[in-house]
Amino acid sequence: MIPTQVYDNAIRRFLDPIGKFLDDPSVSEVMINGHQQIFIERKGQVSRTDASFSSERALVSALLNIAQYVGRPLDELHPILEGRLPDGSRVEAVLPPASPDGPSVAIRRFSKDTLTVGKLVEFGSLTPDAALLLDLLVEAAQNVLVSGGTGSGKTSMLNALSSFIPESQRVVVIEDARELQLQKEHVVQLEARPPDPKGRGQVSIRDLFKATLRMRPDRIVVGEIRSGEALELIQAMTSGHGGCMSTVHASYPNDALNRLETMALMSNVELPLFALRAQISSAIDIVVQTSRLRDGQRCVTHITEVVGCHPEQGYQLVDLFKRRFSEAGPDGRIPSVFEPTGALPRCMETLRSLGRPLPKSMLEAAERRAATRENDR
Questions:
Q1: From the CB of residue 249, how many other CB atoms can be counted at a distance below 10 Å?
Q2: Strand pairing of 27-33 and 104-108?
Q3: Residue 129 DSSP SS3
Q4: Residue-wise pLDDT tens digits, 69-94
Q5: Cβ-Cβ contacts under 8 Å for 364 (sequence gap 6 or more)
Q6: Which domains does the chain have, with CATH numbers?
Q7: Separation between Cα atoms, residue 287 and residue 375, nearest integer Å
Q8: At the N or C end, where does the chain have fewer CB atoms within 10 A?
Q9: Is residue 316 a contact partner of residue 306, using CB atoms and an 8 Å limit?
Q10: Number of Cα atoms under 13 Å in the Cβ half of residue 97
């Protein structure tokens, strides 16, 4: 890998056409569709810029230099590049022939300022009571899956949730490309590595998982589940490693479990579907659903508990908090309220053992729910 200093002196020069966007903290993503079309995302809204590279060759040259910096191949035989820049920005690039209209690039930028739970509450992504519930659930070593679409804030939410892990616990983080910035001291960062051009030296997520289980982890955090490693995570969650966390691409909590199921089936292990579903419903305790709304807002829409799996009806879920939306206002903003549903988590005894009460709004909602059911009888 090229030393970091070389980036500023050489590689950054190749990225001059988008340099001002890489320096702008308000820009969260830079998207390049061929050398003449460059889009950016700012505050959740995507817009086209008037910037461009002088030619396709200039763009490819920039990508080749990035590939050399991260030590990964990029050519016709290896047309996909995945890596990160020194500032932590994630780069995903696809070259022709896999991208026939020219090189396609997405650079996901991450804020240098740590996004805390307090800031999420300030932005309206969470309420103080929802944040308190998540604090209790993480401290109680519930296994949490953060679900959401592209750009919905999954990684930021996982970073924020890590602040609730007790300081005395050892956290092992496994990622394809390092993105997480866990707010803890005792953290071991492990990163997968693709094979070199001769097919040597690959270290997969599954390889790292096997190593992790012998590194005395109190918590295992997987940056993103993408494939058969889902089965390893499920096995870890059901074999005494409580408090695990990960993210998955899905639009709703139930979809997150179905996607996890599909990826677990991609492993080489033959497992009956009913047995796999039983393991998933036992492994995952909480799904935190994130979303990016049409007006650009990023927020948590559900905090959902997994309570079991029915042979015919599928996964059984209960929403603990759910966001209720109103019609968009004149300014295009979509007002919403994130409120407790009245359901209480099954781990109440564990939560009581922490000596910390549930949010008052949850208890009041539970009383109203119980009264309504009593009246309906």
A1: 16
A2: antiparallel
A3: helix
A4: 888 889 888 899 988 887 778 899 99
A5: none
A6: 4-108 (3.30.450.90), 117-376 (3.40.50.300)
A7: 31
A8: C
A9: yes
A10: 2
- Sorted by sequence, the CB contacts under 8 Å of residue 165 that are 6+ apart come out as 138, 139, 171, 182, 184, 219, 243
Mean pLDDT of the 5-9 span: 62
Residues 6+ apart with CB under 8 A from 87: 22, 109, 112
Rounded CA gap, 84 and 105, in Å?
12
Mean pLDDT of the chain: 88
Q: How far apart are CA 110 and CA 12, in angstroms?
A: 17
Of residues 112 and 347, which shows the higher confidence score? Answer: 347
Q: Which residues contact 20 (CB under 8 A, 6 or more apart)?
A: 51
* β-sheet with 45-48: strand ranges across: 45-48, 37-42, 27-33, 104-108, 90-94, 80-84
Which distant-in-sequence residues (6+ apart) come within 8 Å of 300 by Cβ? Answer: 120, 125, 126, 130, 157, 288, 289, 290, 291, 321, 323, 338
**Rounded to an integer, what distance in angstroms lies between the CA atom of residue 183 and that of residue 161?**
9
Which pLDDT does position 152 carry in this prediction? 87
Tokens of 301: 């829409």
**Residue the block writes with tokens 């309220």:** 337
- In this structure, what are the phi and psi dihedrals at residue 211, rounded to the nearest 5 degrees? -70, -40
Helical ranges in the chain per DSSP H: 4-6, 12-14, 19-22, 56-70, 117-123, 128-139, 154-162, 205-212, 229-237, 253-264, 273-283, 348-353, 360-376
Whole-model pTM: value is 0.85
Measure the CA–CA gap between 140 and 242, rounded to whole angstroms.
Answer: 9
Burial class (CB in 10 A: 0-12, 13-18, 19+), 347: middle
Provide the token pair at 78: 């290896």
- For the stretch 113-167, pLDDT in tens is 677 889 999 988 999 999 999 999 999 999 999 999 988 889 889 989 999 999 9
3-state secondary structure (DSSP) of residue 375? helix
Long-range contacts made by residues 112-118, C-beta under 8 angstroms, separation at least 24? 112/25, 112/87, 114/159, 114/181, 114/183, 115/156, 115/159, 115/160, 116/160, 116/163, 116/183, 117/160, 117/161, 117/163, 117/164
